[in-house]
Q: What sequence folds into this?
């Protein structure tokens, strides 16, 4: 007879994930995870090297050697990540006429990650700059203004707050078998995000770039705040959940509150800082919906303020137009030589 622990294994045999070969502490029963466009996006950008390579590409880097020297990344690792990102259609390879060399250029799908990066950057600038000036100042070419982009409703153009959004299942809603080995993903390479240039995006990903951490924050946006509920929803191993929750509390994303005595039970409430992750959250959701959901978004969002369904639109706070990588320039507020890195295309 199946025990309670195995009861959630689906009957359909081909979909059943294999057990990891190596016995690790952080394993749990095979489980099914919610279809989620944010999770799909994070599968790509939560790899620290992949994230850094994409960021360098936004700064205009295109060749193997310039990626390598900007990031100090081992050759084999760079080869591997460029191959994967090309397979994922984030990059396309372009042969250089009269040369053996190839360039890696962002595809439309790759460029479209830019608003998500900027949403993360705004979060990092706001909460993680330690009172210092943000490392980069953005200048929006279209309006000529110094820009502080914000995540807005695609229908009414107003800033999106977590409290003003209702969500419901979309055509792609459902669950799929969790990938083998995902449960063992570690949070430990967070420091790698800060290699190379000082960046508010890196600082933000240092906290939430580990996919489990962001999944826990996602559950909070769904209103799931109690340990047991989050654990059931994510089917996450208790030791991983405990670890991620204590990191998120230490980083100021959640506060912990006792809601029941003997046995003691806690719930986790988003702080103002945690709630401010909603912008990056819906920006990544939009990207995943657009490029990875085959036209069937798992989740539909309604902006209560205007009463319409919407998607996240990252807009310039000055001219209110959606931003794109090609229309943004940067002013550095740090000395790139101090970091041994290439400077971005500067406006001055
Ligand atoms: Zn609206
Ligand atoms: Zn503008």
A:
């Amino acid at each position: 007879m199946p025990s309670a622990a195995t009861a959630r294994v689906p009957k359909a045999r081909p979909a059943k994930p294999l057990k990891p070969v190596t016995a690790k502490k952080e394993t749990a029963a095979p489980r099914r995870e919610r279809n989620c466009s944010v999770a799909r996006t994070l599968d790509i950008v939560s790899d620290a090297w992949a994230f850094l390579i994409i960021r360098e590409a936004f700064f205009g880097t295109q060749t193997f050697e310039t990626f390598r020297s900007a990031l100090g990344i081992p050759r084999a690792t760079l080869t591997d990540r460029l191959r994967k990102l090309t397979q994922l259609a984030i990059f396309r390879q372009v042969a250089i006429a009269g040369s053996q060399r190839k360039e890696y250029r962002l595809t439309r799908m790759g460029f479209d990650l830019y608003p998500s990066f900027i949403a993360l950057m705004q979060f990092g600038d706001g909460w993680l700059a330690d009172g210092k000036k943000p490392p980069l100042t953005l200048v929006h070419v279209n309006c000529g203004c110094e820009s502080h982009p914000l995540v807005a409703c695609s229908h009414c153009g107003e800033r999106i707050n977590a409290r003003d959004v209702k969500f419901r299942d979309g055509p792609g809603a459902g669950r799929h078998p969790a990938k083998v080995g995902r449960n063992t993903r570690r949070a430990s390479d967070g420091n790698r995000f800060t290699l190379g240039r000082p960046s508010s995006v890196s600082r933000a990903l240092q906290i939430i770039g580990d996919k489990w951490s962001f999944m826990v924050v996602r559950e909070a946006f769904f209103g799931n705040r109690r340990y047991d509920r989050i654990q059931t929803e994510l089917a996450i191993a208790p030791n991983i959940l405990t670890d991620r929750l204590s990191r998120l509390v230490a980083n100021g994303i959640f506060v912990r509150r006792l809601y029941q005595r003997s046995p003691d039970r806690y719930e986790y409430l988003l702080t103002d800082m945690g709630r401010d992750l909603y912008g990056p959250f819906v920006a990544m959701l939009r990207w995943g919906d657009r490029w990875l959901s085959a036209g069937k978004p798992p989740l539909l969002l309604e902006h209560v303020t205007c009463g319409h369904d919407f998607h996240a639109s990252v807009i310039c706070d000055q001219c209110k137009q959606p931003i794109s990588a090609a229309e943004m320039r940067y002013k550095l507020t740090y000395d790139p030589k101090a970091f041994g890195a290439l400077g971005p295309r500067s406006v001055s």
Confidence is low (pLDDT under 50) at residues 1-28, 182-188, 340-348. The first strand starts at residue 32 and ends at 34.
